[in-house]
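Job type: complex structure
Entries:
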Amino acid sequence: MAEPMLVIRDLHVKVADTEILKGLSLSIGKGEVHAIMGPNGSGKSTLVNVLAGKPEYVVTSGAITFEGKNVLPMTVDQRAREGIFLAFQYPVELPGVSAWQFMKTALDSIREQRGEEPMDYRVFDKMWRQKIKDVGIDQELVKRSVNEGFSGGEKKRSEMLQMMVLDPKLALMDETDSGLDIDALKSVADVVNKRRGPEKAVLVVTHYQRLLNYIVPDFVHILIDGRIVRSGGAGLALEVEEKGYDWVREAMATA
Amino acid sequence: MTTTLTKHEQYLADFRVLEQAADGSAPAWLRQLRQEGMARFEQLGFPTARRGNEKWKYTNVAPIADAAFRYSASPKTSGVKTTALRRVAPWRKEWTTLVFVDGRYAPTLSSVPSDGGGLRVASLAEAFRTDEALIEQHLAKHAAFEDDGFAALNTAFLSDGAFIHAAGGDEHAPVHLLFVATDSTQPQVAYPRTLVVTERNTKLTLVETYVGLGDGAYFNDAVTEVVVGDGSAVDHYKVTLESANAFHVSMTRATVGQDALFSTTAFAKGGALARHDLHMALAGHGSSCKLNGLHLTAGREHIDNHVNIDHAAPYSQSYQYVKGILTGTSHAVYTGRVLIRKGAVKSNARQADKNLILSERAEVDTKPSMEIYCDDVKATHGATAGQIAEAEEQIFYMRSRGLDPKAAGALLIRGFVKEILDTVKLEPLRAFLDGVTDKALPEFQFEGFGDRDEQRER
């Protein structure tokens, strides 16, 4: 197994006094793509949001380390600067904020963390234009305010553009496939696949197997009622797709 | 009422001094008008937030009524230098600029081309001699003072101000009216007064700036009347940058003719109390008006935007979009009333206000309303006060990209103001307002977002 990047041990998480994650453990190695599948309400979104550092999610016990560092005391922006990126299920609109300015500020914050100077704006601009082409997002669209008036698919592409620009070590994708048509789905997968490499890891959270046809995971985990109940290779996703989550539940009951 | 009168005695005494000083030089109709203004002020006094007085429900003007502001019939304008003005106000050589210091016209600081083509810009005092008939036809005919103590008081002291008469095309340079208040040991009151008349098919860009040079207390009681002739377009800007201890009460009345447009952008920052009463009368068939507003309030500042739009003609269009950012214990009031009269068919009215409340102790009272007496119209309104929840989501999103809370808040706030600043078509003014905003924004930061993180850490 690859050198571990993210290690989650016996994680318990509450949202507004309801326990959502009930002892989740997961280890993601460098260069690996993991997929978490599960029915609605199983805790998929909670997992990525707690990793990103959303304040409403309260960790009651357990541990999360990222490259050996304790993640739990870090704020959301500290985690981002360490190299954790969350592609939102519902990206927020930022009226009046230009995408260029937003990403330049974000990238410079991350560079500052690494002890690097702010990027020269011409260098940034060139890189920005290249990434826009790579992602295949409409040039005119990114001249507008961030996500403002974007369709669902455009918002997801905007997330992928941000991911490309910030180049995180760990990308968390929260139901990125929801609301996407097949072409948009392929282009999102294309971006993720292009980024695969020995130093990058991806955690994809999805309800359906569909996206995993295009982003083929190294590991698939089934999350039910706040725990990972089954792990396997890419084939597990197909099995779940075919037999449904009840099959996993039944298998658990008879085990 | 007797106690109120006592408070008003100073105004009455100053009025008598003015009457004697100006005796003989002012036309008889003007003296008559002033006396009517004073008489009405004595009856009305300053408004109180008594029950049923919806116009002044959230704004208490007792600090104005209780203070003893003095009126100087002949203030000195010599202490003010152009260089000082250029630091605090938008300024362009190419503009026609009239400067008023403590309400008095300062010709040496002003720049008025001798031949303005169809554009005539002068002090009212001078124009009483040269353009008396036109002035008599319009002055105080649009800004009624029967129901408004502040307008009555302004009219009582009507002796100078700005006069603009524009005719013939769109070649005119922008006109800037700059009302400057100086610090003095005795708090002063000034009565800025402006009359703008545009003839048919004329374009005019007009900037009204009110700025305090120090941080002292003073009171500006301003009235502006704008007549937009048929087929004309007036692009009007009101920039209010009063000192932190100043009081600003203004009334703007625009009467818009057939197929004409009155577009106004109101930018306000500063002032212990600022009240803008804007009334736009869409009198002509196909007339339009537009309001874009942005105000930044901090500390204990109070701002009150009182907007009335009167659709009196068919195919009339109105648009209002007012945004506010509040911090400290500041208070913003917005009343937007749209009246669509019977017969104003095919009219279209849109109205919205948005506020970004950065502090839990700041307060917004917003009251959009529409009274529609005509079936065949389109009207929409919406208000979003206190977008804290939305802003928290936005800040979290930005932080998830690596921005610290301060940087995220600053970018978000900048985005919020940009929407209005970008509507300013007069480029040097837009750049000036951008600068004023940039300088002010460090004071405007989200409070309390960091606390959550600390809670989570424990």
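Summary: The longest strand of chain A covers residues 4-15. DSSP finds nine helices and twelve strands in chain A.
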